[in-house]
Every structure is written in C-alpha cells, then in structure tokens.
Backbone:
C-alpha cells in the first residue's frame, strides 16, 4: 500500500499567487520563458537561464547556482512563505468548463523504487540527471509531479465537502486555465485522507516521469549518506498532486513527418491500403472518431484511415494502442522510421494545439504528411502500468498542466 503525508507547504501569499505560479519547466523553451516571465514568476527559479544575457546554457553550473540564489531571494522578499503546520491541500484545475480535483501531498520515494508508484514511460538519463541536480541543490521539490489513483467514493465525498469552503487561491492563468487551492487544516480530515490512501495499492505517474525519478534518486542518495536513516525523514518524501482517474482526460498526441520515404503521394496512399481502409474526406478537418481510426493530412486533403481486422492485437496492452498500430504499419513499414526517439524526420504535436496545427505545418512545406490519433484512455494507461509495460514515446498528453509554484515542498 502507498504512503503519503501532509507537509508545510512553501507558497506565495494570496496577492502574488497568480504571478508567481508558472507553467512547468518542460512546456516552454528558454526564449518563450524569458518573454513570459514577470518580476515574481517562478520561471526565474525553474528556468534561471533566462536571467542571463544572452540566455545561458541551462545545464551550466552558473545556472544551477542561480536557481538556488533566486529561490532564497523569493523567500527573503516574501514572495514565497512557508506554512507553519503540516497540512494537505486540494488543487482544482478548470479547463473549458470541466474541473478536476487533486490532492497535494508528499509521496515516499521507496514506493517508487518498489513499483507501488507505477510508470508508463521510459526516462532519458540526461533529463533525469538535470532534474536531480535541481532537487539536490534546492533540498526542495519546486515543481510537483502529476499522479493518478483509482477513484474512491469516500475521498470524493471528503473533497466535495472541503471545496465547499472559501479557497485560498482562485485565479485564471493567461492561457485560460483556472487554478484553485484549498488548505486542509482539520486534523480529522488530514487523518482521514492519510488512512484512505493507506488502502490504495498503487499510484500512477500521469505526467512528470523525470521529476519522479529524480526525486527518488535524491531520496536514495540522502538515505545512503545518513547512517541513522529511519525512513521518516523529510527527504524521503516528494511533492505530488494526485487525481482520481475518472476525472482525468488524456488528449491526442499527433505526428508530422518530413517526407514520404521516396514514394509519390499516389504510391504512399496505395501502400496504406494494404493495412487500412482509406477514405478521402476533403478539405475540412477530419478528427479520428474511435480506436484504430486515424486521420491523415496530405497534399491539402484530409483522409480517414481505419485499421483492417487482424492488423492489431486488442488482447495486448501495448498492441492495442493506436501509437503502436501507426508506428508498426505506417511509420516503420512504409516510411522507414524505426526509432521515434531519435529519428529527425518525425515531430510530435500535442492535441492542445488543435488539428489545424497539423495542416499548417504540412501546408507550410515544413512537413509532408500529418497523422492524428484517437486519444489513449486512462484505463489503457493503468493496464500498461499494471502489467509492467512501457508506452511508446509521445503517447499521452495531459491537459491542463499543473501550475508550478502553487505549493513547494522543502526537505
């Protein structure tokens, strides 16, 4: 069973919350971050390379040191303040009228190492190392990870009561996403939440695989350096926002490819016909309508591609995924793209940008063909994690993203 605990959150005073809280480090590049960062923005702490002119190498020692310097400065200036008591928080996100409620809590690194916090993606060693240096240097989890748990009615009811009170924060970010935070200060509620999670066998990493792995490595590192380690030290815990699975929605993660591997457009469409029912849909955007149905944009036209029977394995948690079907039958078989992680001929577009972004990139001449996929379900994600499998790269896109700086955990 998993172990969570309340903590003394470090967070902005109410009047600064909307300005301090920022988008996560990995959804915008350094140039975008520099343009977006206001005076108090957390971007100065999570992307401190923006404070150099010109922008510095984000992996340089001076940048890592600047992150520590800025974090101390934000606390000295009162832009980040530590709560006096160990509590939980409820963090709600609102997007297009839909709201999801997560528990802000600390999770134990041993649960990750033991497989009770389950992953569905591989991590890249360089990105993991980068995040680990930040956590180690700050002795803090500045940004939370995004976890899911199997929904529990008892927890839903408890949250429903807590959020009927006045929130601590309630703001809409510049991207239109709403962010609301409540403090859970009642000792009875804190004890009840801890007890509920003691009955949960596993948590699932939705977003933040690198941050989770980095936090676990720092916990293991501190444990090894402490001969009197008990397992209850604050360094054993890292920051997460944990949502019930039935409130989460995964959106599509699409592909654009630079060329047709030497084929003409007619030859390429003909080759698709071996494994797909191919229908030309015209100039209007066509969106996939079911599992194993894809949309394709080529030469100014949208197509529907429906995988033929026998071309996929619905009994296999990886084989059933449309990213697998597309990779096997189109990207590899026809276009010769073997490794999605390293091949420079392919790029990925989050569904939040809309399918118009796919046609734009093809019409501009930058790309030759685009594919839109039906989104993965939470059930598919959990099935893959439970069976110890790993999803292909760029399979899931969660939206809205957690805002960084709403709450920070120090150890």
Residues:
């Amino acid at each position: 069973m998993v172990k969570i605990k309340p903590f003394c959150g470090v967070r902005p005073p109410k009047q600064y919350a909307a300005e301090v809280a920022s988008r996560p480090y990995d959804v915008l590049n350094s140039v975008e971050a520099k343009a977006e960062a206001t005076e108090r923005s957390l971007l100065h702490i999570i992307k401190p390379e923006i404070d150099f002119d010109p922008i510095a190498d984000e992996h340089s020692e001076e940048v890592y040191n600047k992150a520590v310097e800025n974090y101390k400065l934000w606390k000295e200036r009162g832009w980040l303040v530590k709560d006096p008591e160990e509590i939980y928080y409820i963090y709600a996100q609102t997007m297009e009228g839909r709201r999801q409620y997560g528990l802000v809590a600390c999770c134990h690194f041993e649960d990750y190492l033991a497989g009770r916090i389950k992953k569905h993606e591989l991590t890249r060693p360089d990105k993991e190392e980068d995040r680990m240096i930040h956590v180690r240097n700050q002795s803090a989890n500045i940004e939370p990870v995004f976890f899911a748990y199997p929904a529990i009615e008892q927890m839903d009811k408890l949250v429903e009561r807590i959020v009927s009170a006045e929130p601590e924060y309630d703001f809409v970010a510049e991207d239109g996403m709403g962010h609301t935070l409540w403090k859970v200060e009642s000792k009875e509620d804190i004890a009840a939440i801890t007890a509920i999670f003691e009955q949960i066998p596993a948590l699932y990493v939705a977003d933040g695989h690198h941050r989770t792995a980095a936090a676990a490595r720092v916990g293991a590192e501190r444990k090894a350096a402490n001969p009197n380690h008990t397992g209850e030290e604050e360094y054993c815990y890292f920051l997460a926002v944990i949502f019930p699975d039935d409130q989460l929605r995964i959106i599509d993660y699409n592909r654009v490819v630079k060329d047709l591997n030497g084929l003409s457009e007619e030859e390429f469409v003909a080759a698709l016909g071996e494994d797909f029912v191919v229908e030309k849909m015209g100039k209007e955007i066509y969106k996939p309508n079911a599992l194993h149905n894809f949309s394709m944009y080529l030469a100014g036209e949208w197509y529907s591609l429906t995988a033929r029977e026998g071309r996929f394995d619905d009994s296999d948690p990886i084989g059933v995924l449309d990213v697998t079907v597309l990779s096997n039958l189109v990207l590899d078989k026809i276009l010769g793209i073997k490794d999605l992680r390293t091949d420079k001929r392919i790029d990925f577009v989050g569904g939040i940008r809309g399918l118009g972004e796919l046609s734009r990139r093809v019409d501009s001449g930058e790309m030759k063909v685009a594919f839109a996929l039906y989104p993965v379900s939470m059930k598919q994600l959990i099935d893959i994690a439970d069976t110890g499998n790993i999803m292909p790269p760029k399979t899931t896109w969660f939206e809205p993203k957690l805002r960084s700086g709403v709450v920070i955990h120090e150890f």
The chain has a mean pLDDT of 96. The CA atoms of residues 360 and 366 lie 9 Å apart.
